[in-house]
Amino acid sequence: MKVESVCVLGSTGSIGVSTLDVIARHPDRFRVHALSAYSQIEQLAKQALACNAQVVVVPDTPAAQRFRNVWPAGRPAPELRIGAAALAETAADSEVSVVMAAIVGTAGLPAALAAAQAGKRVLLANKEALVAAGGLFMQAVRDNGAELLPIDSEHNAIFQCLPEDEDRARAPRLPARGVRRLLLTASGGPFRTASIESLHDVTPAQACAHPNWSMGRKISVDSATMLNKGLEVIEAHWLFSMEADNIQVLIHPQSLVHSMVEYEDGSILAQLGQPDMRTPIAYGLGFPERIASGVGLFELTRMQKLDFESPDFNRFPCLGLAYDALRAGQTSCISLNAANEVAVAQFLSGGIRYTEIPQVIGDCLDRMASFNGAAPRSLEDVLEHDNHARAVASELCMLRT
Ligand code: NAD
Ligand code: MG
After folding, report:
1. Which of 20, 103, 128 has most ligand 1 atoms within 8 Å of its beta carbon, as the pocket-test mutant?
2. SS3 for 148?
3. 3-state DSSP call for residue 137?
């Protein structure tokens, strides 16, 4: 069996750790070539030691020094690469066949895009890359013979429910034949039933306490506001060539049905499983084969019921903002994502209130609307618009503190 050589971008994060867990179960199939992290350098060193990584990428020279300081004497050290350009080069490295894109935010876009341009199998967790640069990204996958496997649990579920076409990882331009709608499920997060008045005083710890999934802090806040589901609607648009009107969000508090595909004949296919990201990660790594993920048996008899309800757009204004951005075009999606990254970081550090997140995003989209020209044609166009929106969003946050 061919051993695939894997690069894990963002290996110290929630998805990165789960990825290394699945890989470690299959030493006959996968070896880790490269790892990257931004802050938890000690953890990165432990990971590199455990999986015998050949290359590690850190953001700057102080981080590199920290890595050297904690590396045990007498053990052969991995090659240490520094900076964002090294990240993209490593993702495109000829030694690598599979790239797990698990950096959070637009910061992960250049390396994820580089992997697609280099024709790798890209396991895409970093949804912000598709939100900011969906057109460019899908084009890069098609033009360079890359494979794109969605790792976001909803998109992985939809991918699994699509017709069995071996080429479906190669970014077809048209929606799959016979598909009427995509039904994206959402847990509703920690504030699904809280009184709307109480949201005013929500703390970062409360927003990060997700009822069903354990995730990084940024995506946990996004899940609470449901901006995460909005990003996922945009992600689904690009992955599966579906228009906004044919992507429906359903609140499903049990988080057991991970999403569904509705066909023209009325059939609805669903993928179910425990809320554990190792399932979609193992699917992406093994595709088209199924491999063990470490996820235990799912006791259907213990499952009491499956509820589905429509989301309340007043409770979750971020969801409506995301649909609006998708309908308005790619530059609006860049602004939406950038404003959200700024607003969530401000909320997590105590700069703005939870209820100000949608206000900052909405105001930023309004201010940026006059710059919504043609769709971006290059990574530079995307990053320029992203930087502009970030500056506007930061200013809007400052006005509120
Ligand atoms: P996390 O915060 O736990 O980890 C993020 C990783 O990215 C860390 O390794 C960190 O060091 C690295 N990183 C952060 N900023 C960086 C920067 N500027 N440059 C380079 N590296 C940087 O996040 P996570 O929960 O693992 O999520 C990662 C991505 O996967 C996000 O895009 C998220 O939306 C997506 N996702 C996560 C889950 C989940 O269950 N955690 C589910 C679906 C999708
Ligand atoms: Mg998801």
Report:
1. 103
2. strand
3. helix
Distance CA 188, CA 277 (A): 18
Q: What is the pLDDT of residue 47?
A: 98
pLDDT digits (tens, 9 = 90+) for 274-305: 999 999 999 999 999 999 999 999 888 888 89
Angle at 191 between CA 187 and CA 194, to 5 degrees: 130
> What's the token pair of residue 69?
């300081």
According to DSSP, the residues that pair with 30 across neighbouring strands are: 4
Q: How far is the centre of ligand 1, averaged over its atoms, from the C-alpha of 102 (Å)?
A: 5
Q: So what CATH class is 4-150?
A: alpha beta
Per-residue pLDDT, averaged over 232-246, amounts to 97
Ligand 1 atom nearest to CA at 213: 40
144-193 tens-digit pLDDT: 999 999 999 999 999 999 998 878 898 777 888 899 999 999 999 999 99
- Say which ligand is closest to the CA of 40: 1
DSSP string across 349-388? TTSS-TTHHHHHHHHHHHHHGGG--SPP-SHHHHHHHHHH
Read off the amino acid at residue 352: I
In the reported structure, the alpha carbon of residue 253 is separated from the centroid of ligand 2 by a whole-number distance in angstroms of 13
- Cα 259 to averaged position of ligand 2 atoms, centre (Å): 10
Segments making up each domain of the chain, as ranges? 4-150, 329-401
Q: What is the pLDDT of residue 375?
A: 87
First to last CA, the chain: 58
Describe the strand order of the beta sheet including 247-251 as a list of residue ranges. Answer: 247-251, 179-186, 257-263, 268-272
Distance in angstroms (rounded) separating the CA atoms of residues 259 and 271: 6
Closest Cα to atom 22, ligand 1: which residue? 38
Residues with CB under 6 Å of ligand 1 are 10-16, 37-39, 59, 102-104, 107, 125-128, 152, 213, 215-216, 218-219, 277
208 phi/psi in degrees, rounded to 5: -85, -5
User: 329-401 sits in which CATH class?
Assistant: mainly alpha
- Expressed in angstroms and rounded, the spacing between residue 354 Cα and the centre of ligand 1 is 21
Angle, to 10 degrees, between the axis of helix 379-400 and the axis of helix 127-143?
170
What's the mean pLDDT when you consider all of the chain?
96
